Amino acid sequence: MGQCILEMKNISKAYDGHKVLKDVNLTLNSGEIHCLLGENGAGKSTLMNILFGMRLIHQSGGFQGELYFEGNKMHVKSPKDAMNWGIGMVHQEFMLIPGFTIMENIKLNRETLKHNIVSRVFGEELKTLDIKAMREDARQALETVNLNVEEWLQVAGLPVGHMQFIEIAREIDKSNIKVLIFDEPTAVLAESEAKNLLATMKKLAQKGIAILFITHRLEEVMSIADKVSILRDGELVCHKAAKDISIDEIAETMVGRKITIQNRAVVDRKDKEVILDIQDFHVMMPGEEVHGMNMQVYRGEILGIGGLAGQGKIGIANGIMGLYPASGHIIYNSKELSYLHTRQVLKHGFAFVSEDRKGVGLILDDTIDMNIAFTSLHINKQFLIKIGPFKFQNTWAIRRHTTKMIKELDIRCTSTAQHVGRLSGGNQQKVCLARALTQNPNILLVSEPTRGIDIGAKKRVLDLLLALNRKHGMTIIMTSSELAELRSICHRIAIISEGKLAGMVKPTAKDKVFGLLMSGKTMEQIQGQEVEA
Ligand SMILES: Nc1ncnc2c1ncn2[C@@H]1O[C@H](COP(=O)(O)OP(=O)(O)OP(=O)(O)O)[C@@H](O)[C@H]1O
């Protein structure tokens, strides 16, 4: 391990008088992979935002404490300052320009210029872009991250897995990069893609780059980390070499109690009444297209949908909910849904938790109350009181219900009136789930329900889904990149490849079977494996 490159000393930060970081000290050595862990809302992103000079920090009163880079006092007031010091950040939400090519995204604001006849005479400003050199640089950065795509392709429509690697390629193309922050980069990736990313991180660390890595997947931590730091309620409660700590100890330190997630025994279901029959279904969702899906969903089951990023698993629920153009037949309770319009589908008793919580899920500048009650209020006409001929919003009932949901899902907030935009990412995810559950749906479609939430909250969410299914017979279709999560509560798992159903398997099937189906093999090709559900 190299020398100390970065020191964060006595860092404290408050939002509206509420302390979210308390005297945090953290050191980072060059060439090390340092995992930063903690429950949702523990302060991880805030600490990284301070280091990267994010505007949000300075607009909300700045922070206390000092930063040192290679022994020199560092002032970062903007991401540009951070970049000048040699700090890069790969964000949780992608920051690429869809209409630009991969090369243009990698080189944005750092274009290589060359002299031409005119510029030699009239000066520097008339230099032209050196496309050849830029393509070579982009090619090299893509090779370092093992991404085998042409650099002149447009970013729009590429699978999410690719986007993550392009973001990293952009960061490592910067010649002075010494520290790289990864804020939950694997959350959007399937496990095999995440492995690729971890291998890339190792390669970067070997080149001497120091890596700060935020993740909720603790197995990843064990496979890659040199050091582990854990935040709890804004305080640094552990700073250890990874070899001296176990997964159980990490989980316990994060949440302050023992946590174990086990596979629930899957009850083999005898009644197989079809509630939803999906026939020749096509969805035009860029990057997640569905091309002729056929699948039946049984009443009262938890059906898992898995597959690699970009293969169409995400497109299915989005198509059914009318969020992207779709064609084919959706037969619900033996009747065809004539056209898929979101409002109509919601009225039929469907609820949806989107994988895109910022885009589709939440109204960020409204309160937790309103976010949770919104769909039920407008579609199901819940939470209304009738006075004479008029109907009014029953604010008291909304507040009472929201308080119950906050408790049930352990949403960390200051009050039911807090704006959702001010919650941590994981807590926003819980609000999306609370809204869907409030609708009391017949069919619940959940995409990536535990993305970005900590291990304690994950157990709570999976337990809740299981309880809704077992106690109330709710049919649940859960799409997830985490196979382990699908296996832990689903009755059957559909693997999607190239926009079609590759196979429907039991959760107890071997890893190899899932791997083969994900890589494009069909059920016929893997016959004899005793897998069919
Ligand atoms: N813009 C903001 N205004 C007010 N409070 C905020 C703001 N952003 C974050 N917070 C609060 O700061 C605390 C720490 O949030 P932060 O996003 O750093 O947590 P985190 O550990 O990254 O969580 P997660 O794992 O859910 O992403 C939370 O209580 C959150 O509600």
TrEMBL record:
<dbReference type="InterPro" id="IPR003439">
    <property type="entry name" value="ABC_transporter-like_ATP-bd"/>
</dbReference>
<dbReference type="GO" id="GO:0005524">
    <property type="term" value="F:ATP binding"/>
</dbReference>
<feature type="domain" description="ABC transporter">
    <location>
        <begin position="261"/>
        <end position="523"/>
    </location>
</feature>
<dbReference type="InterPro" id="IPR050107">
    <property type="entry name" value="ABC_carbohydrate_import_ATPase"/>
</dbReference>
<keyword id="KW-0547">Nucleotide-binding</keyword>
<dbReference type="InterPro" id="IPR017871">
    <property type="entry name" value="ABC_transporter-like_CS"/>
</dbReference>
<dbReference type="InterPro" id="IPR027417">
    <property type="entry name" value="P-loop_NTPase"/>
</dbReference>
<keyword id="KW-0067">ATP-binding</keyword>
<dbReference type="InterPro" id="IPR003593">
    <property type="entry name" value="AAA+_ATPase"/>
</dbReference>
<feature type="domain" description="ABC transporter">
    <location>
        <begin position="6"/>
        <end position="258"/>
    </location>
</feature>
<protein>
    <submittedName>
        <fullName>Sugar ABC transporter ATP-binding protein</fullName>
    </submittedName>
</protein>
<dbReference type="Pfam" id="PF00005">
    <property type="entry name" value="ABC_tran"/>
</dbReference>
<dbReference type="GO" id="GO:0016887">
    <property type="term" value="F:ATP hydrolysis activity"/>
</dbReference>
